[in-house]
Design goal:
The protein has four helices and three strands, in the order H-E-H-E-H-E-H. It is α/β, with parallel strands linked by helices and 92 residues long. Strands 1-2-3 form a three-stranded parallel beta sheet, with helices on one face. Helix 2 links the parallel strand 1 and strand 2.
Length: 92
């Protein structure tokens, strides 16, 4: 299955939250990429609107299953975590 096909028919949505930790973000993404289950999409939430490094990390990885949401202001941990509790089209 190609990544583009997986994006259209993803069964699982993964959330990664980041705040000024590009090395840890890259490590988390690499861990996700090597999983045996590949039918997923990933939503990366950047909680620092002034930090461009998450977009650079995703640009280097260049996987169409991954999307970046940069918050317009610093939400903090609770509000950021609540971003994962919105309705989604994926089953999980």
């Amino acid at each position: 299955m190609t990544h583009l096909l997986a994006e259209k028919t993803a069964r699982c949505r993964v959330y990664l939250f980041t705040y000024q930790r590009p090395a840890l973000l890259q490590r988390a993404i690499q861990s996700l990429l090597v999983q045996t289950y590949q039918n997923w999409v990933c939503e990366v939430h950047n909680d620092d609107p002034n930090d461009l490094r998450p977009s650079e990390v995703l640009r280097e990885i260049s996987d169409p299953r991954m999307s970046l949401i940069t918050h317009p202001e610093k939400y903090g941990p609770t509000k950021t975590f609540n971003c994962a509790f919105v309705p989604i089209k994926e089953e999980f």
